[in-house]
From TrEMBL, chains A, B:
Pfam families reported in the protein's UniProt record: Pyr_redox_2, Pyr_redox_dim
Domain FAD/NAD(P)-binding: 3-313
Keywords assigned by UniProt, alphabetized: FAD, Flavoprotein, Oxidoreductase, Redox-active center
Protein name as annotated: Coenzyme A disulfide reductase
Record SUPFAM superfamilies: FAD/NAD(P)-binding domain, FAD/NAD-linked reductases, dimerisation (C-terminal) domain
Amino acid sequence: MTHLVAIGGSDAGISAALRARELDPTVEVTVVVADAYPNYSICGIPYFFSGDVKPWQSLAHRTHADLEATGMRLRLDTLATSIDVAGQRLTVRDSTGAESQIAYDELVVGTGALPAYAGIAGLEQLTPNDGVHVIHSMGDTFALEKHLTERDPKTAIIIGAGYVGLEMAEGFTGRGIHVTQLQRGPEVLSTLDPELASIVHTELVEHGVTVHTNTTVRAVEKTTTGLVVHAEHDGQPVTHTADLVLAVVGVRPNTSLLERAGATLGAGRAVVVDEQMRTGLPHVFAAGDGVTTHHRLLGLTYLPLGTTAHKQGRVAGENALGGAARFAGSVGTQVVKVFDVVAARTGLREHEAAAAGYHPTTTQTAADDHKRYYPGAQPISIRITGDTESGLLLGAQLVGRLGTETAKRVDTYATALFAGLTVEQISDLDLSYTPPLGSPWDAVQVASQAWSRTQTPTGVLA
Amino acid sequence: MTHLVAIGGSDAGISAALRARELDPTVEVTVVVADAYPNYSICGIPYFFSGDVKPWQSLAHRTHADLEATGMRLRLDTLATSIDVAGQRLTVRDSTGAESQIAYDELVVGTGALPAYAGIAGLEQLTPNDGVHVIHSMGDTFALEKHLTERDPKTAIIIGAGYVGLEMAEGFTGRGIHVTQLQRGPEVLSTLDPELASIVHTELVEHGVTVHTNTTVRAVEKTTTGLVVHAEHDGQPVTHTADLVLAVVGVRPNTSLLERAGATLGAGRAVVVDEQMRTGLPHVFAAGDGVTTHHRLLGLTYLPLGTTAHKQGRVAGENALGGAARFAGSVGTQVVKVFDVVAARTGLREHEAAAAGYHPTTTQTAADDHKRYYPGAQPISIRITGDTESGLLLGAQLVGRLGTETAKRVDTYATALFAGLTVEQISDLDLSYTPPLGSPWDAVQVASQAWSRTQTPTGVLA
């Protein structure tokens, strides 16, 4: 009987374990989880702080009982410390400090990522007790919640204005905490072109968030009057003070276990895996935020996302049982809700596409989510990036109000990218239409036609 | 200088004219419109009756001035009575009865469809003055509105429970008119499987609509006490009485003009066109609800939809100027909002796929529109039809509450159908996820995985 061991209780590890049990109920599956919170939705943590999610236990995708009902065994509060690849044995340490070994036939490593500190002095030294937080685990979550409830901070500085930073700005604001958001780049949400991200910026400001862009944080310092963040703004030193500091400046792959076992690091210093999620070490698969990402337009890159971790874990779980599944590749689809605005992207932005050797050009269009004569129509701002040589769709970015089905409109582009369609073919798609929810040419197509017009000058048939 | 003449002021004719002017601003374009209402949104008429759209003029996709600003000439209240194909001349009759001729270089015929009467006695003889209505034109719309405002009917019978019938049931109900809806088939919305259409049925009943299924209407009769509808229910004669009768039992292609000019009729007795929208008559193109529909899964069929008419008109307009555009084909994507429920479909249902030679099977799943821990999550019911031999996706049907992005989720399936993806590949799609708006495996993928599980028994890798 095969014994599959998965390391990591988050998306990749659990997905691998679930897939293995689904495909072969006779396989023995053990999941080694560093904390006591397997299968928690990390993406949901900001909504716990906003008060939308109560109690915190409901953040679990599946309960402990649900997971055990699938037949997998969970080893909680257990840290994997080393892999004996030749001996097919894993050394683990439990919460008492006791070490033991687990023999495996196949191993799936899903150790994920760790918060990055971006070279900011003091960040690694200061702790939640000092009022300085990261949020990546349920432990971080409890520490921050304790701070909020016991010390009632009135002001917070959020370092970073990416997905989690923006969601936390909303969460804190909803709890009456004034947020100052510091962003290194020229605009918030640097994964979108500033022409669209500026809409998100406006939304933040309208909800009372103070946003400082072009602000590079150098150090965080604890003083008697509060936490002081030292930064540079346009080359000038500035300081900001608050009761609480939350640093959300990205993640780095957590690779030490696999590195020590002999795995190779690649893009983003993540562990290199092939499309079958094999590490190259015999019987050792890896998946999730700790590994390189196969991207359908870029080849190998590092793009950690929960959706990708689920897919990669599923592939690893199947292949660990002798399957030949392949991760079909990411196209980088992402979406975030910030107050009442939804911002989404898929594929490449113009500079990314150019760097990858394409010949991109980008157009921007505003198109109503549904027929204007029906109440409540709202424009969705859409940027289309296409290849001027092949006509291929390379990417799309969308920002619309909540309720405009922007999140699922990006999926049409994502599917088109997956299938390798041209921008012109977007107009050929048979998309749904009813006046309260769309238009005969959907907003998705109005935007693609605007791009096409830049490629087909009028009079071309004359 | 080319003179392009388009017949028909609705989607196909106007789209052809717009495309021609877009591609070549030197081309002379005349659009012959039978009434005074060019480019009106027929799909929007129910929302005029519900009171959502005011005034009726806002139902125009573009105003008369907008259209003329593109450089096209409109001949309103002008009926095209015959085509001299060899002489490239069109005979038209204006509202005074005077006939004249229009010479053309290229002709695009977009005469659309007419209401069907489904063999119901009295329907063609009784008029709006009698309280019996159809709604297909702005003239029909004004007649019905006049009835509603001047005679204040308390009760209405709607014959038919398709898209327009359901939308009108909502519209009448919103105005305080009690609706009795009579449907020939075993369930409302016969374009969906009854397992999902029943959700729409429940929504109608919960909003006070009386629904009678398995009810075949034989005749409509005007009596001194009101309008009497004679029907059969399970083989037994039944009668229903109301102040107003609205018949929405489908449409038939309006082909007489092209038939007399020598065009060939095909599927659904619509005019046969090729993928370039050529009728086979020299210099005569046709598009819209009057012509056969190229369907990517079925080949030639008849499936009149506004979205298709827009695309076909655009192709005809381009080709009339010497282009070689092709209508890429419909996949039959449709959506309707009925009160607070959204019902959508794309592709084929099981019996349609079987009739077309596929080997289909269908599964049904309910999957939340977003993570359950975030407030407001609602299940979307999804039926997936796939081919058991090739694994290809053949169709999807979805019913969800308003606000669940069901209308744009069907577009992901529609795009997958367009690209010829397998059901299994739906799981490979990189779809957007944020807890308030989706799940790591989107509902679209949860449903496709349920289908895949029926094809890959557990233990297959053991």
